[in-house]
Design goal:
This protein is α/β, with parallel strands linked by helices and 193 residues long. The protein has 5 helices and 8 strands, in the order ββαβαβαβαββαβ. Strands 1-8 form a two-stranded antiparallel sheet. Helix 1 crosses helix 2 and helix 3 crosses helix 5. It starts with a strand and ends in a 6-residue tail after the last strand. The C terminus is likely disordered.
């Protein structure tokens, strides 16, 4: 058989409504501020200065106690700095498996038209990086994603890991995508699709 979605039917053979369906448009993941510190700037202002800038931008968009998300390579250094500034910090563990899920999450949002990246120089640079991503299988079986430059795309991958682990408030992937109840995708032969 082929992979299909099996709809649930009532006693009259009519499709059942999905009680979790929200007819409003799907949530969109919005990238509203893209920026980076070059090496010289980073050295001049240090980690505390960088966190000052990050928290200021986050407060502008998220209110007085923003949530800053980073990976396990930054959480030991940045969590305390974020907390000192009244921000919350969440570090996510990055692995081959959750990196692959995050890249699939990004691809799905792009395919569904549910991601918005600003058309500023930083946003356009992020879009170029995303277009240049390629999957690299390591000799030990691990997966990496690379390209000419990936710093900005890596930020989006970290957000994808955070969301696919169920941690993102207002997640763009938390709303059912169908008005009809279903058993999900599977090999159901020639059943009603």
């Amino acid at each position: 058989g082929r992979e299909v979605e099996r709809r649930l039917l009532d006693e009259h053979g009519e499709p059942l409504s999905n009680p979790d369906w929200d007819p409003n448009p799907q949530p969109v993941f919005r990238v509203i501020s893209v920026g980076a510190f070059d090496r010289n700037e980073r050295q001049a202002i240090g980690a505390a200065g960088a966190m000052d800038t990050i928290v200021q931008i986050a407060r502008h968009h998220m209110g007085p106690s923003p949530l800053i998300v980073g990976d396990q390579f930054s959480d030991w250094a940045l969590e305390g700095l974020a907390r000192e500034r009244g921000a919350r910090f969440a570090g996510v563990h990055v692995s081959s498996q959750n990196k692959r899920r995050a890249v699939q999450w990004i691809a799905s949002l792009l395919e569904e038209g549910r991601i918005f990246i600003e058309s500023t120089p930083g946003g356009l640079a992020m879009q170029r990086e995303l277009l240049g991503l390629s999957e690299i299988t390591r000799s030990g079986g691990g997966v990496s994603f690379g390209g000419k430059s990936t710093d900005l795309a890596s930020c989006l991958v970290t957000a994808g890991i955070f969301d696919t682990e169920g941690s993102m408030p207002g997640s763009p992937s938390g709303t059912p995508r169908s008005a009809l109840a279903s058993l999900g995708h599977g090999d159901y032969g020639n059943e009603y699709t």
